[in-house]
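Two folds, back to back.
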Amino acid sequence: MSSLFRKCMVALTGVVIIASVAARQPAAQTPVPSPYVGADACKDCHSGQYASWAQTKHSKTLNKLQAADLEGTACIKCHVTGSPEMIAAEGATPSFPNVQCEACHGAGRLHVEAAATGDSVTARPAKTTEETCTRCHNEESPRFKPFYYTAMVGMVHR
């Protein structure tokens, strides 16, 4: 075999190997948008509730944490908004800092999209219950104070 032929075969073999490896890789997928939209997406339609929330401790909860509390999810999970997976992945740089609307009422993308089409019934936000609040306001919190749902629920939206 000639030297040129051998070089061509080696190059062709390399191309075939690279092509077969590339074919096994999953195709790049378009990222799925987060089901969360953030409090700013709520304020146009719910300006009174937004203004009330902005004056509460919930709107400033991330500022209450020390640097060490931002590591892991033990503390931060109650000071930001998002799914447990989002919170774990984002860590100290959350997309939705503080306890925003969706922390209590559930992810809002479907609600916002439905409202944009004039559909005020589909994808209504979840009603908050005592269980919603006690996911964070419980004995696991290092600064826990007794929590009385019936007394506190009226203080969230005035």
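---
second:
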Amino acid sequence: MRSLYISIFSEFYKSRKTLAFWAAILLPVVICSLVTFGFYSNSDKILKMGYPGLMLWARYSGATLNVMGMLIMPFYVIFMAFSVNNIEHKNDTWKTLFAQPLNKFSIYAAKYLYAVLLIFICLALFAALTFGLGYLLQALVPKYTFNQYNPSTVLINSYTKLFLSSLGILSLQFILSLIWADFLKPMGVGFIGTIMGIVTASLNWKYAYLIPYSLPALALQITKVKPGGDPLAFEIFTKEIYTSLIYALVLFIIGYFIVSKKSIK
């Protein structure tokens, strides 16, 4: 555990000034702020719709979830996976990294867990900012009905599902970024995979859940609030999530063998 802790802290130290680190914070701040500004500046039009609290939260939180699940989330994960390993590729420090008196598995696991941690922080901020800025809108526009419903459980469940659905993509892209040092190859594969995932998920292809890149979009479809329905009546651990976790576990093990061979070159 000490080796793992030291390795994770080392990853933070190396990446604390990089775009990969700050994207986890800036991405939710920028997107949530833009959505909030849109609801504030168009409050007159939205108020005419007469939404009750539940539906108003569904529209507000759904604006962010739609953007994240369908497009930004896959590309963010692809970029994160590349950035974590690019530090070693760019400086050609794989051999130096594994020459340290630390457990090799801990070094590899720390890189993976650090990427997972950044994704978790990003999505946790999305949930927290959506909740907080929603009530800020209520204070700025008293006629809004945000105070009629508490969305905390829905937001936690939705972003938890989005987080778990992203692990399959992360694990696959993590391996690609280990194999290829340049940005274009893993990004190209990720771009094609994301387009395939969006198309297959949109068409409701029955085997779409087997494509890692489609899993965030499928998770988003399931977490949409239906008019008149119970927003809490959805499962977190569905077949899409189990598929993502299986991909994550299997590819994590494969990635360790790949990075171990790098250490002896």
